[in-house]
Design goal:
The complex is a heterodimer of chains A (37) and B (243). Chain A is an all-alpha fold. Helix content of chain A is 86%, strand content 0%. Chain A has one helix and no strands. Classes of the chains: A mainly alpha (37), B mainly alpha (243).
Chain lengths: 37, 243
């Protein structure tokens, strides 16, 4: 494995996890705010 | 301090948080995208580490926010314990999950970086071990918040835990000085990295910080809306029972 394999693995993990928590948090907020009158 | 107290009013907070959330979020995303692109394509490889030095542009912001997140929990907990601001308690609870995630990302991207540079995925080095402890402290905090809510607590016990956990922060910071084992010493702020390699880090660092702030605002808004909906439901149940 060359250096790029590790670089791509680290970037993919960090960016995918960040996108994941953003999407989950956003939809949780939208669902919670929709319940308000 | 009086203006800070005024800001701690949930209604006033929401008035500011609603327009601020997308601004912070998209500014953060833009800075991360630019910093990642620059880090992957516009900087030279390191003479010793080769291409793997580019992991720094992701790893350092995750470490900064893993620790910064706990600083936020500790400060919010102090504000809650001293001034009894419910919004401070909400802020501490909102920081916990993103903080834990970034501590986890710091450990995992560090591990991925360690394999080609140190020849190992993991070592019980002072910095690595203290960061792992911080991750477990985050998990403990989240479990404690849930348990405190289940038993109808007022949030004081998690707040005390939030303040006590901050003892780990100086240990993590000084671990590379106290135990000189595997993790490198301070290099970003000490000017030990060539400017031609370092500059995209400021973009990813700023970008992830804004992104983290947006996440905290989103999660605070969720907690406030859920609390308000639950209170309304309880009020309606009480009215129904007395009717």
């Amino acid at each position: 494995m060359n250096g790029w394999t590790f670089v791509i693995a680290a970037y993919t993990l960090a960016l995918a996890a960040s996108a994941g928590i953003a999407v989950v948090s956003f939809f949780a907020m939208r669902a919670a705010e929709k319940k308000l009158p | 301090m009086a203006s800070l107290h005024a800001f701690a009013n949930p209604v006033r907070f929401l008035k500011i948080a609603r327009p601020l959330t997308p601004i912070l979020f998209w500014a953060g995303v833009a800075l991360i995208a630019f910093g990642a692109w620059a880090g992957l394509t516009q900087t030279p490889a390191d003479y010793l580490q080769g291409e793997t030095v580019r992991i720094m542009y992701i790893h350092v912001p995750t470490a900064w926010l893993g620790m910064g997140g706990w600083s936020g929990i500790a400060l919010s907990s102090i504000a809650f314990l001293v001034w009894r601001h419910p919004l401070a308690n909400v802020a501490a609870r909102a920081i916990a999950l993103p903080g834990a995630l970034f501590a986890f990302l710091c450990l995992s991207t560090g591990s991925i970086w360690g394999r080609p540079t140190w020849g190992t995925w993991w070592q019980w080095d002072g910095r690595l071990t203290s960061m792992l402890l911080l991750f477990f402290v985050y998990l403990g905090y989240m479990a404690l918040v849930r348990a405190d809510q289940d038993r109808g607590g007022d949030g004081r016990i998690p707040a005390i835990y939030g303040v006590a956990g901050s003892v780990l922060l100086p240990i993590i910071h000084y671990s590379v000085i106290w135990w000189n084992t595997l993790h490198q010493g301070e290099s970003v702020v000490r000017g030990k990295i060539a400017a031609s390699i370092l500059w995209p880090l400021w973009f990813t660092l700023g970008g992830f910080t804004l992104f983290f702030a947006a996440l905290v605002l989103i999660r605070m808004r969720t907690i406030l809306a859920t609390t308000k909906a639950e209170a309304r439901m309880r009020r309606m149940s009480a009215e129904f029972a007395t009717a």
